[in-house]
Design a protein that fits this description.
15% strand; 3-stranded antiparallel sheet
Length: 395
């Protein structure tokens, strides 16, 4: 099957998670993804656990379908090779601090003189246009500055980082969207452009109702655990054997729920008749719901409410999630056959296109595995020239 980004070549200087998330998405969609790494060291995440036969499973989980070449961009010969590759590329990606590429003489303004059609995408903590360009940014920093941590956790506990590195993942995904839009723009105009993604911006943009609650009412959103600020009951509840989420998003669902738990009198109770009233009186309502959930198992509640078309789900741990029949049906777990680590199971892309397949993937590359292929096939360098670069530690 033809993939939608077939024929698009990306030079990826990304490392760890934010940009590698973006470039993995591009690679999944068919782009030729050339990951350029430091000789000897490679991407920092190659040294993050867990490890399988000395290879990082962390790295493997976000670098499938990519080629790896090593290149020292601090050496003049390395810069020359990179510029030659830019002439033959469509996209350059990086997630360094804002002035890093400029100091190397490889910033967007320089690269677009080499290739006016180049699309240059950057992710950093606070953006290239920022009140403090040198401020370092990691996922936790973006979650804190973007407002997510302040509304995550329980009122009697500290602000809490979301369990996965969503600031990295959001910013990577937004960069993918921006690159796809820039490619379409280039189709129309013939011109490339520069993409500037801030991790703080990405987090702030997904706060949804928390922002308008403040801008409209002046109320500062606080931590409310797993409850919802505008819907009730919409929360996690204790059960006989664990936890279950119940999501009552409207009055019709509330009526169905009350019938299932055999408390139909609550439907017309003046404290709970409408969603707004239920939200206002949630401190009284939650104990009523919890008294019912604690008498059932999580699975029983999920089945009872689902049959009544009320949204509910057992809070599953990873050992249960990987066995979930819908995860299997949707092919969301795939196995890579890595040359050193062997068979490793990772998540698949959630994107489903009727004319493109995600069933076959290439495992994450070994450090520098494709260096000779890139230099020989794309730039036409001879074996002798490549060996000379290796001796000089340019590659």
């Amino acid at each position: 099957m033809t993939k939608p980004l077939q024929g698009i070549r990306v030079l990826d200087l990304g490392h760890v998670l934010a940009m590698p998330t973006c470039t993995m998405q591009l690679a999944d969609l068919g782009a030729e993804l050339i990951k350029i790494e430091r000789p000897g060291m490679g991407d920092d995440s190659r040294h993050f656990g867990p490890f399988v036969n000395g290879e990082s499973a962390y790295f493997m989980s976000v670098n499938r379908n990519k080629k790896s070449m090593t290149l020292d961009l601090k050496k003049e010969e390395g810069k020359k090779i990179f510029k030659k590759l830019v002439q033959k590329a469509d996209v350059v990606t990086e997630n360094y601090r804002p002035d890093t590429m400029e100091k190397l003489g490889l910033g967007y303004e320089k690269l677009k003189k080499i290739n006016p059609r180049i699309i240059y995408a950057s992710i950093c903590g606070f953006g290239h246009k920022s009140v403090d360009q040198q401020r370092p940014g990691y996922d936790a920093i973006a979650q804190a500055t973007g407002g997510l941590m302040a509304i995550t956790g329980y009122p009697d506990g500290p602000p809490t980082r979301v369990g996965s590195s969503v600031a990295d993942i959001f910013s990577g995904s937004f960069t993918t969207i921006a690159i796809l839009a820039a490619l379409r723009y280039r189709d129309i105009t013939g011109e490339g452009q520069c993409i500037d993604i801030s991790m703080m911006d990405a987090v702030f943009s997904v706060l949804e109702n928390a922002v308008v609650r403040y801008t409209v009412t002046g109320e500062i959103p606080t931590r409310i655990g797993s409850a919802h600020a505008s819907l009730a009951p919409y929360d996690v509840f204790e059960t006989q054997d664990g936890w279950v989420v119940i999501g009552i998003g409207n009055d019709s669902l509330w009526e169905r729920f009350c019938k299932v738990i055999q408390k139909e009198e609550l439907i017309s109770d003046p404290l709970y008749k409408t969603n707004d009233l239920r939200s206002q009186n949630y401190n009284k309502l939650k104990p009523i719901v919890t008294a019912w959930t604690k008498e059932q198992s999580s699975k029983e509640i999920e089945e009872l409410l689902t049959r009544a078309r009320v949204p509910a789900a057992e809070v599953k741990t990873m050992d249960k999630i990987v066995k979930d029949p819908n995860i299997k049906l949707r092919n969301m777990l795939i196995q890579m056959d890595h040359p050193k680590a062997g068979k490793v199971t990772v998540t698949n892309s959630p994107i489903r296109l009727s004319e493109s397949s995600y069933e076959k993937i290439d495992p994450a590359p070994l450090l520098g595995e494709h260096t000779e292929e890139v230099l020989g096939e794309i730039l036409g360098l001879s074996e002798e020239a490549i060996e000379e670069l290796r001796e000089k530690k340019v590659i």
